[in-house]
Every structure is written in C-alpha cells, then in structure tokens.
C-alpha cells in the first residue's frame, strides 16, 4: 500500500491546485475523486485577479491567461435598461480584470498542469 503525507479528497479547482503544489514541492500526496471523470458542467464562471496572481507564483498562469475572456465590468440590465455597472478594478494587481473561465475549463487546465508536473487524479474512488 502506498504511503502519503497528504491525502487530497476532491478534484475540484482547490484540490487540483493543492495537488499540483504538493507535486511541485515534492510532498508525497494523492488526490482522489469519487466521480469517474471530470465534470463537463460549470458551477462557477470566473477566476478572480488574486487567484491569477497565485497561479503566476505557482508557474501555471499562462494557459489561464490565454483561455480567459477578461471582464473589466459587469452590467445589471432589466427591461433593456441599465440598472447598475460594477467595475472590476483591483488596485496594485497585474490582472486588472476578472478572468471569465468556466469551472470545468479551469479544472481541465489545472489537471493538465498537475499531469505535466507528474501527478494524477485517482478517479472513481467511491466505495474504496
């Protein structure tokens, strides 16, 4: 039986990023996911500017930068009338936008970075 220092349960964005960081730091770890494959549906639509900075520090930001649709503001509209406009303008940030990337794409990009670093998700672990 394999020995691990860290067991990561769940291959969502946080679990995948953590697994990548464990591999990058040469910490013995395993990431398990109960589902048989990655979700094809998105539960979230964006990556926040500070998260992009964390991805940059981890050396994995480029695929996210290339994939993202930068959103610099949001509009709230009802009956063809603009009710509000919200600017996304974080101060002192290299990513002055919200990166519009569906969660399933974020997970795919993180899984690809994990695999490139030598890690892998153990899928379909329900009942094991």
List keywords for this structure.
128 residues, alpha/beta, FAD/NAD(P)-binding domain, three-stranded parallel beta sheet, 4 helices, 33% helix, elongated
What's the SSE blueprint?
Elements: E1 6-9, H1 13-24, E2 29-32, E3 46-47, H2 49-57, H3 61-67, E4 69-71, E5 73-78, E6 81-87, E7 98-100, H4 103-116, E8 121-122
Parallel strand pairs: 1-2, 2-8
Antiparallel strand pairs: 3-7, 4-7, 5-6
Helix pairs in contact: 1-4, 2-3
Please describe what this structure looks like:
By secondary structure, the protein is an alpha/beta fold. It folds into two domains: 1-42 and 103-128, FAD/NAD(P)-binding domain; 45-101, no CATH class. Helices cover 33% and strands 24% of the residues. The strands form three sheets. It has a three-stranded parallel β-sheet, covered by helices on one side. A three-stranded antiparallel β-sheet has the order 3-7-4. The chain has a two-stranded antiparallel sheet with strand order 5-6. α1 (13-24) runs parallel beside α4 (103-116) and α2 runs antiparallel to α3. The longest helix is centred in the C-terminal third of the chain and has 14 residues, at 103-116. The chain is elongated, with a radius of gyration of 17 Å.
């Amino acid at each position: 039986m394999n020995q691990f220092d860290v067991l990561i349960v769940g291959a969502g964005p946080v679990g995948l990023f953590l697994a990548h960081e464990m591999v990058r730091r040469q910490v013995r770890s395993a990431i398990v996911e109960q589902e048989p494959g990655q979700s094809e549906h998105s539960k979230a639509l964006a990556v926040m500017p500070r998260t992009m900075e964390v991805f940059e520090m981890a050396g994995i930001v480029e695929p996210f930068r290339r994939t993202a649709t930068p959103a610099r503001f949001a509009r709230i509209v009802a009956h063809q009338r603009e009710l509000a406009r919200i600017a996304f303008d974080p101060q002192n940030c290299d990513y002055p936008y919200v990166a519009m990337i569906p969660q399933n794409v974020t997970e795919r990009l993180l899984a690809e970075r994990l695999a490139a670093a030598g890690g892998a998700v153990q899928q379909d672990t329900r009942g094991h």
